[in-house]
Design brief:
InterPro entries: GPCR_Rhodpsn, GPCR_Rhodpsn_7TM, Olfact_rcpt, OR51/52/56-like. The chain crosses the membrane at residues 27-52, 73-92, 104-122, 143-165, 199-223, 244-267, 273-293. This is Olfactory receptor. With 314 residues, the chain is mainly alpha-helical. The chain has helices at 26-53, 60-88, 96-129, 134-137, 140-158, 160-166, 183-189, 195-228, 233-241, 244-266, 272-297, 299-313; strands spanning 2-5, 8-11, 13-15, 93-95. It has a single domain (2-313), classed as Rhopdopsin 7-helix transmembrane proteins (Up-down Bundle). Helix content is 75%, strand content 4%. A hairpin with a 2-residue loop joins strand 1 (2-5) and strand 2 (8-11). The longest helix has 34 residues, at 96-129. The chain is globular, with a radius of gyration of 21 Å.
Length: 314
């Protein structure tokens, strides 16, 4: 399976795997993944359509929500080809270069989601702590600049990854542990000196997840201080209620990441199925949950959905 590529041994194809111990129930696993993809794609497309069509939603908060939905669609479509091929058609091979491309896009969209959640926390901070200047601070041009900045940062930090992997020989086989390509998974089958990959990977994770999560926590500390200074209990609850959807989205994104990191570092003896399932939760649950969270908790989104529903019935 290994072929000579220049001066390095690299596989022509890599073999993907499903969920360990679930081979007999592969049809059910495929059904679950199809449902997750359907909910994610339909839900996020619905959010995007509503924000575009409803003029009442042409506000900074919903522009950032559109970025989140667009990014979640990117996450779903990045994993969809190999996941469906593995579970629905039992086709488990992917070209080496195609694997590197998929790895790049999966990690890029994941890091972009972190940046978008940070931008949304800034939106809530300005709306609650400085409401009189909300419209002048978050203008359309600044929102566009923030979105492009998040894209540029994620692209630039992830761009070296495929080349860092490409330089390595692969002498530990060609079998990966997931139904999609991830950088840590590729490192397990690579030979040679992977210190650069590990150090740069740690730097990127710290530079994105670490910094973003710190500023999100700081934003909510300032928001909480402002809210507690409000005399009226009803006004305090109203202000906090505008943050609930975003808090749920942050938890849905960061809790699986923290859980995966803890398992990889402190519970390495955990059965492989646990590692695989947690990685699947990290990639598949946030894109599915985000449109549900915002549809349930955001009054304006609910109104838009009901408006479209009643139009379709008439």
């Amino acid at each position: 399976m290994l072929g000579l590529n220049g001066t390095q041994f690299q596989p022509d194809t890599l073999q993907l795997t499903g969920i360990p111990g679930m081979q007999m129930g592969q049809a059910w696993v495929a059904l679950v993944f199809c449902i997750l993809y359907l909910i994610s794609i339909v839900g996020n497309l619905s959010i995007l359509t509503l924000v575009v069509q409803e003029t009442a939603l042409h506000q900074p908060m919903y522009y950032f929500l559109s970025m989140l939905s667009l990014n979640d669609l990117g996450v779903s479509f990045s994993t969809l080809p190999t996941v469906l091929a593995t579970f629905c058609f039992n086709y488990r091979h992917v070209g080496f270069n195609a694997c590197l491309v998929q790895m790049f896009f999966i990690h890029t969209f994941s890091f972009m989601e972190s940046g978008i959640l940070l931008a949304m926390s800034f939106d809530r901070f300005v709306a609650i702590c400085d409401p009189l200047h909300y419209a002048t601070v978050l203008t359309n041009s600044r929102i566009l600049a923030i979105g492009l900045g998040i894209l540029a940062k994620s692209f630039a930090t992830l761009f070296p990854f495929p080349f860092l992997v490409k330089r390595l020989p692969f002498c530990k086989g060609n079998v990966l542990h997931h139904s999609y390509c991830l950088h840590p998974d590729l490192m397990k089958v690579a030979c040679g000196d992977i210190h650069i990959n590990n150090i740069y990977g740690l730097f990127v994770v710290t530079f994105t997840y670490g910094i973003d999560s710190t500023f999100i926590l700081l934003s909510y500390a300032l928001i909480l201080r402002t809210v507690l200074a409000i005399a009226s209990r009803d006004q305090r609850l109203k202000a906090l209620n505008t943050c609930i959807s975003h808090i749920c989205a942050v938890l849905a994104f960061y809790v699986p990441i923290i859980a995966v990191s803890m398992i990889h570092r402190f519970w390495k003896s955990t059965p492989p199925v646990v590692h695989v399932m947690m990685s699947n939760v990290y990639l598949f649950v946030p894109p599915m949950l985000n449109p549900i969270i915002y549809s349930v908790k955001t009054k304006e989104i609910r109104r838009g959905i009901l408006k479209v529903f009643y139009k379709s019935q008439s």
